[in-house]
Amino acid sequence: AWGGQHAGMRKLFTVDHGTNGKGPVYFGWNKGGNLLACCGTNRKLTVWDRQGKVIDQKTLSNPGACMGLDWDSSGETIAVMQQGSPVVVLWHYPGKKLENLETGLKDLTFMKWNKNGPQLAVGTLKGNLLLYNKKTLKKMPSMGKHTKKITCGAWSSNGRLALAGEDRVLTINTSEGDLIDQIQLKLEPINVQFARMKNEGNSNPNDTAETTISVNLGGKTLLLYDTTETNESPYELAFLPKYGSIMSYRWFGDGYILVGFSSGQVIVISTHLKEIGQEVSYVVPHSDQLSDVAYCPSLQKGASIGDTCVQLFGMEELSNIKARDSDKYDLDSEYGALARMEWTEDGQILTVSSRNGNVHTLLTKIPVMNDACGTRVLYLTSLREVCIKDITAEQDIINISVEVEPSFVSLGPNHAAVGMNNCVWYYHLPERGSGMTAKATQRTYSYSVEAVKLSNWYAAVVSDGKVTLHVIDSLETENSNNIRNDMDERLQQKVFPEKEGTDVRITSVEMSPKFMMYSTSHGSIVYFSLDDWTIISEYRTPLGIRAVYPNSEGTRLAFIDDANEAYLYSPVDDSLCKVDQFNVNTDKILWDSSDWGVFVGCDAKQFTTYVYSPNTRWGAKCSAVCKMLPGKAMPSDEIKTTDKPGHFTPILVHNGGVVCQMGNGTMPIVSLNTHVNATSSNRVVGEHVQQAFYNCLSLNRLEAAWSYAQRLSQADCWYLADRALHLLDIPMAIRVYRMSTVQQPAMVLALTELLHISEKTLLLGHVAMLFKNFNEAQNHFMKSSNPKLALEMRRNLMHWNEALELSEKLSPESIPYISREYASQLEFKGELQPALGMYNRGLVSIDPSVDEQKRRELEQHNEQCQAGIARITIRMGDISRGFQIAMQTDSPALAVECAQIFEELKQWTEAAQLYEKAENYDKSAEIYICQNKNLKAAANLMQHITSHRIQGLFGAAKEHERDYVAAKEAYLAAEDWDNVVRLLVEHLNDISSAYDIVRRTKSAEAAALVAKQCRKDGNPETAIEFLLLAKKTDEAFEMAASHNHMHTYATVLGNNGSVQDYLSIATYYEEKGDNNTSGDFYLKCKRYDKALQKYLEVVTGLEQGIQRAEDEEVRNKQIDACLNKAIAVVGEAQSDKLNKTLITFLTADEESQAPRDPKYLFSLYMALGKYEKGCGMAIVIARREQNMGHYRIAHRLLFQTYKDLEKHGIGIPSELRWNLMLLHSYLIAKPLMKALNDHEMASRMLIRVAKNIAKFPQHVVAILTSCVTECNKSGFDKSAYQYAKELVTTDRKEIPEKHRKRMDTIVRKPGYYSKEHSGKKKITEADLTDPAEPVGQCPFCSTQVPMTMLDCPRCKNNIPYCIATGQHMLLDSWTSCPKCNFPALLEPFSEMIRQGEPCMMCEETIDIKDVKKAISPNPKDWLSGVAGSGTEEDAAKVEQAEP
């Protein structure tokens, strides 16, 4: 809330004890609340006005202190009672004179004026009563009214007087003093009041007579006595002890009592009969004590005093009374304890007295008086102070102290005005921040001013239905550039309406910087130009206008007429736009200062937001903002209003906030429900995003809605697109349809075409068409510069009647084309007669002078019409004419269409001929065959037929005629093999051709036919074959078993049989004693135990001679085959039981108990995946084969084992690696000599083998002989001598004869054959040497290592060797075999491949193109057992070897 510093109560003035004297002080406000009278112990009667100005002050002549003060009902006379004085002093406001009223009584104790009459009641210490009539000046004493002191009393609204005193008697008297009734009281009365207790039986709201008397009895209870129920006992209300004593109470509302207690608590009780005495609510405004309470009906507030403070509490809702700190006013303790309080009638001022003589006047309600200009607000902050505030900056601009308490205020761009009666004070506002004060100019008019409206330099003064327009008389006027210096007095003041003597009254006037606008009772809206000083616009409505509400510039004006309907008026074009869904209770309209198209209607209970859209599909629209329903693009009919809090007076609207003024001076802002989250932009998150989106949408804030739409679903985005189109915002609609959640490229393309359209009617037509409002679109197009668009739209929509009607006006030349299109639709719908008429109407005559292109178009059009005529003619029964037209046309499509119609009509001949004409031979032939039975005509078409179905139909027809050869040819063309076979078997007796067809096509039905024929012919073997092809497996098995052709059955069955089929075959052979074949079929049906059993039985039978073989070699081959099958069975079964059975069988012969060949165990372990055990067996087997001299076999076994281990990622044992290397070194010696002619390297390989000659026991002599011979050739004299000596010494007799002599010579004469030592006479063994071996870098540590050394002496790694030379590998010459991936040196390996040698390791033939040099090889792969993976990644690292 703005204006918070003015909230709550403000002190107006204080009358301290210096004026009243220390001690009790009595005060009172006159009727109307304009004068305050005070009198205290110093006997000075002072009268003040509302602003604290002394009106009069009189010193009372009698010496006694004041004991009472009261105003009469007219508010003109004060009565003052003094201690010890029999005189009542009367002060009269007219003349400000004192008058002494002699009562003739002593010891006055009570005094009270009649509420509505001239009587003054005076009571005494002895209980006597005096009634004085101010009008008649008559005194009426009534002696002995009470027996003791009269202490309190009250007048009722109908002139009854209730008195109570120390005698504990309550008397009720007339205004003349006559006793009506009296009641005895239990306790001493303290306070008496008249009121009206709620009576359920009396429902008359006009009956306000005060018939209930309430009495505070000693502060303990509250007595309620109904004077109309004299026979009923009074009600006595007691309260809880915790409340303390009753200090004060006040009646209010509909029979409620506000009670204040000494404990500081205040409660509300009800006097309704059903709830009498019940506590409605309570509040604790004071913590220590409470002195008095009061209630103000106009404010609906209560007040209490105590604890040196004044507390207000709102009582609009009795069940929820709250005492807020903002409604609390603290007084300094030096002022003394507070005693009594009183409110003025209007509730604006609350006066409080203290026990030491001070009187404080507080402002509790500021008059609700305000005005606005732009975003600035002018309002009262005190009775004589106004404040101007900027609501956007939330700060005060200036505070102005005014001369009077104004009855109206006004604010303009440069001035502020306040006024009362016929005087107006104009204040020129200084520039903000200048520090200057507002300068005032007073102007007095000859009439009472009702209101003032201000522009920059003009004032419009309203009085009695007329407006006076004049220049504001301020000091700055003379220097203003906006006022023409030559303006005479006539121009500077003007009275409206200008015509005198008429009954026209101005009902409302407003000002803008350029215009004065006013409305009249006769329905005129007048715009007066302040620049041109003339009327520029006058608009008449049929009804009188209550009020006008222009926007800030005056370019749009809202007004309410006498029918309580609202309209928006545009002075630019005198257009009027009705406000839809306008609230008839609206009493004020406020335009949103931040949104030109939004204004708010205000009534007593709510605010209604209206949105004005000057450009929509339907023209200018203005309507109330309604609630958006989920899933609906348009708003509902339920208006979205905002509740208006009570006592809120709206001043202006800015960005969805209604700035209001309250009675306490605060300026709260009420946020409109229509704007919730619509102004918060990026701060809105979560579930509030959709609410913000819809609010922005309903306010036509499309840009803001766009920012939210990007966070919402597709459906929400559709609503934005629709609203954008309704508002003709094409770019926004395109943006929405381009969103990823919407993605409507078709709409984007369509709308993009509208961007260049500047003509409004054209644009409206296209948009209406997008919304499928075609009548609306047509109306817009017809009003546009291109009315043919309406015709184009109707044609595209196939609205033919409308199109024909439009074409007669807009484009007669298009009538034939529209007629043709319309006829096509009528024909489709089956309306033949109208369609025929339209086709005939569509025919056009062709002018010979037209160009060729136009001629072709017209001819094509006429052809289409003729086609339609032909179709309809046929359908309507004129067969011959329709057939003639169709046959004469050159259009295959028309021929097909007419043929289809003839087909529907069962006119087969015409249909077939037309199909033939259209070259639809399949359809024509089908009709000839199936319907006409005209096979001759069909035969002429068969050369064109490609359909197997038609060929089949023709074949069936020829077969029906017993022309089997022609039928067979037709079936062959149709690929109907079953029928072909049937004809060959049953009619043509060509069984061999039937065999070929069935074997080729695998037709089951045809196979059954052939099998049946084979049975008849006594050919069971062939019958079995075709029974299997016919899927008659059981029948084929029975025939095979019965005719002993099971081998044929099994062969034909192949791998296509079922488990049961194979099981039957296995059982058959088992019964026949053929265990080998039986085992094969048990394996196929996965009966592994039976298969193993049968294989082992075969082996056992062969070994024991139970089963005979041709010779030993055949027998061993059969045993080897069966054991390998047994191993395959166990490997596939992966059964521990079968494993154990086979291992037991292999490890010991049943007769000799000697183990069988270990190669079988090796094969078993490899089949079972037990590669480590298989590796061990491979080494054993290879050693055996090596010992037997089978070096190639041993090499292959070790190589295969190596690759198997490598494949499964198992490390290669060093023994296997070494044995393979040694065998490989021996095997490559010969290729080195022959292919590479490298005798030196061959010698080194043979030396490597000779060093391990014990591994080659079968060929020791041969190997050493070869080694000596090759060493001798290569100059390895020392090695030749060494191994020759070994041969001669140990195995001389085994040396072949042709080498023995040479060996002897080498031993006896060292160096004899040496080229190096030739010519030397005597050479000893010590002189012999071998050639120095070349060295190369270790691929691991780069140490220079001899080329045939495979262990690095430095890093201790086993170096990979070349499979071509046996040398260790070099990184810069690394390649590998493309087949086995073993490493090789690039040059020698490539040369060996060129010489036609296979890979020495895997024995595979290699293409030289596949040999590639490795890039950055990793020798560690070899150590880990991966001799080059051969993957695509490795292939990417190599390059093509040089040829």
Folded structure, characterized:
This protein is α+β, with helices and mostly antiparallel strands. The N terminus and C terminus are likely disordered. The two termini are 97 Å apart. It is built from 44 helices and 66 strands. Helices cover 34% and strands 24% of the residues. A hairpin with a 4-residue loop joins strand 3 and strand 4. Helix 5 packs antiparallel against helix 6 and helix 16 runs antiparallel to helix 17. The strands form 17 sheets. Strands 49, 50, 51, 52, 53, 54, 55, 56 and 57 form a 9-stranded mixed beta sheet that branches.
| Helical stretch tally | 44
Regions with little confidence, pLDDT below 50 for 5+ residues: 1-6, 474-484, 1426-1443
The main pleated sheet reads as: 9 strands, mixed
Our estimate of the beta-strand percent is 15-25%
Instruction: Please provide the count of β strands.
Output: 66
- Classify the helix fraction into a percent range: 25-40%
Task: State the shape.
Answer: elongated
Mean pLDDT figure: 84
> Rg from C-alpha positions?
64 Å
| N-to-C CA distance | 97 Å
The computed structural class is: alpha+beta
What does the secondary structure layout of this molecule look like, with pairings?
Blueprint: E1 10-15, H1 17-20, E2 26-29, E3 36-39, E4 44-48, E5 54-59, E6 66-71, E7 77-82, E8 87-92, E9 97-102, E10 108-113, E11 119-124, E12 129-133, E13 139-142, E14 150-155, E15 161-165, E16 169-173, E17 179-184, E18 189-195, E19 212-217, E20 221-226, E21 235-238, E22 246-252, E23 256-261, E24 266-270, E25 279-283, E26 292-296, E27 301-306, E28 309-314, E29 328-330, E30 338-343, E31 349-354, E32 359-363, E33 370-373, E34 376-382, E35 385-390, E36 395-401, E37 408-411, E38 415-420, E39 423-428, E40 439-444, E41 451-454, E42 458-463, E43 466-471, H2 489-492, E44 493-496, E45 506-511, E46 515-520, E47 524-529, E48 534-540, E49 545-550, E50 557-561, E51 566-570, E52 575-580, E53 588-591, E54 598-602, E55 606-613, E56 621-624, E57 641-643, E58 649-654, E59 657-661, E60 669-671, H3 688-698, H4 702-709, H5 714-726, H6 730-737, H7 745-752, H8 760-770, H9 774-783, H10 788-796, H11 800-810, H12 815-829, H13 832-842, H14 852-875, H15 879-888, H16 892-904, H17 908-917, H18 921-932, H19 935-941, H20 948-960, ...
Parallel strand pairs: 52-56
Antiparallel strand pairs: 1-32, 2-3, 3-4, 4-5, 6-7, 7-8, 8-9, 10-11, 11-12, 12-13, 14-15, 15-16, 16-17, 18-19, 19-20, 20-21, 22-23, 23-24, 24-25, 26-27, 27-28, 28-29, 30-31, 31-32, 33-34, 34-35, 35-36, 37-38, 38-39, 39-40, 41-42, 42-43, 43-44, 45-46, 46-47, 47-48, 49-50, 50-51, 51-52, 53-54, ...
Helix pairs in contact: 3-4, 4-5, 5-6, 6-7, 8-9, 9-10, 10-11, 11-12, 12-13, 12-14, 13-14, 14-15, 14-16, 15-16, 16-17, 17-18, 18-19, 18-20, 20-21, 21-22, 22-23, 22-24, 23-24, 24-25, 25-26, 25-27, 26-27, 26-28, 28-29, 29-30, 30-31, 31-33, 33-34, 34-35, 35-36, 36-38, 38-39, 39-40, 40-41
